[in-house]
Amino acid sequence: MTVNDIKNAKVKAWVEECVKMCEPDQVVVCDGSTAEYDRLVKICVDAGLATPLAKKPHSYLFRSDPSDVARVEKRTFIAAKTQEAAGPTNNWIDPAELKATMKGLYKGCMHGRTMYVIPFCMGPLGSPIAKYGIELTDSEYVVLNMDIMTRAGEKVWKYIDDNFIPCLHSVGKPLNNGEKDNGVWACAPVEQKYISQFPEEHLIWSYGSGYGGNALLGKKCFALRIASVLAREEGWLAEHMLILKLTNPQGEVKYVTGAFPSACGKTNLAMLIPTIPGWKVETVGDDIAWMKFGKDGRLYAINPEAGFFGVAPGTSAQSNKNALEAASKNTIFTNCALTEDGDVWWEGIGYPAKGKLVDWKGNTRDALPKDKSPKGEEFAHPNARFTAPAKQCPCIASDWESPEGVPISAILFGGRRPSTIPLVHQSRDWNHGVFLGSIVGSEITAASTIDASQVGKIRRDPFAILPFCGYNMGDYFQHWIDVGNAAKDKDLLPKIFYVNWFRKDDNNAELPGGFMWPGYGDNSRVLEWIFDRCDGKDNFIDTPIGYMPKEGAINTDGLADYYKKTLPEILKVDVEGWKKEVKDIRENHYPKFGKHLPKELTAILDELEARLNK
Questions:
Q1: Residues known to be catalytic
Q2: What are phi and psi of 51, to 5 degrees?
Q3: The Phosphoenolpyruvate carboxykinase GTP-utilising N-terminal domain covers which part of the protein (predicted)?
Q4: DSSP class per residue in 486-535
Q5: What is the pLDDT of residues 103-122, one digit of tens each?
Q6: 420 labeled part of a ligand binding site
Q7: What's the pTM value of the predicted model, to 2 decimals?
Q8: Average pLDDT of the segment spanning 144-156
Q9: 264 is in an annotated binding site
């Protein structure tokens, strides 16, 4: 298929306009076939950009440029018509100004390269919740990753109409006069990187980065930043949430979504292996959930992605065995270390490497006798990734591609909080749940910052979507309230909970790492309580902060004795700690949103303070 064969006039005109601006040597319309995938892989291997892995069938290792290893928040823009529409937590540039700058960069940017046209679907093909886009890119790496992360290729064309989302991407490194990459990852200098969303136009332009969500435009750019705008316009929710399927010993099923900031165990929870007998957790999605009301008045969710773009370091048989198995074949690895026998390795994988390793920068070094490295000397970059097909996950739910989605019974929020926040508590109603989502955050530790003055402060990440919301966060809170108000039957809305796996007591030598809760598979004990609460079971007490488990309501059979001793402490209301929390929210968090902060949330904060003072 060629550009001339594209039947949709709007799509064809847009592609031709971009070809004229970017001036690629050739244009290839991707068909999404295995033959195409293998041909593009061979191009990357022959160019010295990818290494086949002997230990993992049909899998390859890429190394990026050290300047291009993660999302670049300072170069990510919401180019709304007004700064107020973008809100106080987004980087804003006037759209006309940004387009002028980027058109200058795009002019001739694909010299010496191929422009690939990728038609793709976010969600199961034909789903009433799915959306469609077309990404233009000059990166084979992007095509390969998009092939795993989305439903891409020829099968998508019959669903694409004039409402497609146009996504333009270039690595920003033209090859003139016969130049070659010579095995070097192509990207532009940091100051020339632009990851730009134009919310009023439903348009995405990305330039200068070839990495992750900067370049795989179906991921954060479309599935969250632009989709959050579409969701607001159309009355649904586009969320940075896992989706899991929970089955009790009686065979009853409930579906749960959850939003957690980075490093809070989100993917581990999505693929959890329960420690309590008879319970089963299956994965519907590990990162993003789109939710719409079904005909029966319940919220139904789809996972808009087709793969996992997972953080490799810290993924082990203990933390996430299912993720390791999902990435055992047909997987792209980026910035991991390479072993002598043709496998990948990273810090926290659960075992030391042997012999010599080629680190993520391409240097050969002796392996260490453990699976940790000094900070700054890691063999795998801390943000090293694996891109694996979701269908390869051993715990993938049979209905994960259900076109109508799965009905959601519970929504979880959580952050990394060593004090104050209990193991679990439930909101009293939908708006109280919105309040809990609005205050999500993690405590800043010495390990997570170079600014010692910030240690102990709370880094708020409302709904775990702060970097990914395409408009004013205050209006986003209001949208959640509006969705609750739009429910035909409020009793059918998901119940909302706040969990915290990370309470600490560093003075208790019995506790591994000082953590007062074991986490991982034992989080199934909390899921059991949540499951029963969704059925209205009388297993709770009313407290100033919401509903909490009654004494004995959390199953402790088989739990280590030292955790049984700490459980009452992490199921208490820390009144003084919560008073400090209220003060921080009132003085440092909510004022950011000004007149856009819904009055309902201020009222709930006032009510919380009054309950704590009784």
A1: 264
A2: -120, 120
A3: 14-232
A4: H-S-GGGSPEEEEE-S--B-TT-TTSGGGBSS--GGGGHHHHHHHHHHHT
A5: 999 999 999 999 999 999 99
A6: no
A7: 0.96
A8: 98
A9: yes
What is d(CA 219, CA 133) in angstroms, rounded to the nearest whole number? Answer: 11
- What does each C-alpha distance from 155 to 31, 160, 547 come to in angstroms? 8, 10, 48
Quickly count: other Cβ atoms within 10 Å of residue 388's Cβ.
26
69 vs 381: CA distance, rounded Å: 8
DSSP 186: P
pLDDT at 449 over 70: no
**Confidence band of 264 (pLDDT split at 50, 70, 90):** confident
Name the residue with tokens 């991921």: 219
Q: Rounded distance, CA 506 to CA 503, Å?
A: 10
Q: Binding residue per annotation — 522? A: yes
Q: What is the DSSP letter of 353?
A: -
Residue 452 has pLDDT above 80, yes or no: no
Q: Is 300 helix (H, G, I), strand (E, B) or coil?
A: strand
- Domains along the chain? 3-30+72-234 (3.40.449.10), 239-303+400-612 (3.90.228.20), 308-392 (2.170.8.10)
Contact 333, 385 (CB under 8 A): yes
- 56 is known to lie in a ligand binding site: no
The answer to whether the annotation marks 263 as part of a ligand binding site is yes
d(CA 165, CA 520): 38
Name residue 90's amino acid. Answer: N
Strands of 63-202, DSSP E: 76-78, 114-122, 131-137, 151-152, 165-170, 194-198
Residue 383 annotated as part of some ligand binding site: yes
Q: CA nearest 589: which of 598, 581, 578?
A: 581
Q: Is 298 annotated as a binding residue?
A: no
Question: At what angle are helices 95-106 and 9-22 packed, to 10 degrees?
Answer: 60
Q: Is 385 annotated as ligand-binding? A: yes
Residues 42-95: tens digit of each pLDDT:
999 999 999 999 999 999 999 999 999 999 999 999 999 999 999 999 999 999
Phi (first) and psi of residue 110, to 5 degrees: -105, 20
Contact (Cβ atoms closer than 8 angstroms) between residue 473 and residue 462: yes
Q: Give me 90's structure tokens.
A: 């987004």
Distance, C-alpha 258 to centroid of its chain: 11
Beta bridge partners of 290: 238, 302
Alpha carbon distances (Å) from 424 to 162, 420, 445: 45, 11, 22
Query: Residue 97: CB partners within 8 Å, gap ≥ 6?
Result: none
Amino acid symbol at 523? N
Q: Is 523 annotated as a binding residue?
A: yes
The confidence score (pLDDT) of residue 382 equals 95
Whole-angstrom distance, CA of residue 402 vs CA of residue 527: 23
- Asked if residue 309 lies in contact with residue 387, where contact means CB atoms within 8 angstroms, the answer is yes
Confidence of residue 454 (pLDDT cuts 50, 70, 90): confident
Residue 446 has a pLDDT of 59
